[in-house]
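User: Please predict the structure of the protein below. I'd like the answer in structure-token form so I can feed it into my own downstream comparison script.

Assistant: Understood. Taking the following sequence of 155 residues as input:
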Amino acid sequence: IRVVYDISTKQFYKLLSLNGSDDNRCCTYWEERIDSSLQWTKIFKRNLRHCKENKLKEFNFKVMYNLLPVRKNLYKWNFITDGKCQHCDIEEDTLHAFIECDLNKQFFSYLTTIIKLTYDVDCKISIMHLLKTHKETELDMLLSIAFWCIYRYIV
């Protein structure tokens, strides 16, 4: 078994090119899952151009192109023999790993309480926050770091 989190950005670009040269592959992937058309130009700017921290920028890129080492992808890439979440026993895709998994519910409950107390904002964490589809706010960095922490826990 190869170690997945040591794959370089260059190797991820190669993974992208293996699936064809369709530049909108990530757009199609996410629009199918959330059943909505999104403003991708703004999403790319928020996730890649406006993000100053390189680790978060790389994480955002991997989220957008579905290149995170979640179990479904590891199975598809032949790194493991089963793509199911070890906690919920259902297919672990990016949406499940970051939003729906029971393992994260307590973390998000704590995070939304902090957001409510600090910013006086009621926040229900969703895939829209992970992709940054909403209007830019000061919560973006906090939520990006929260998702990145889950990512580091996964790998």
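That's the full token string. The chain has nine helices and no strands.
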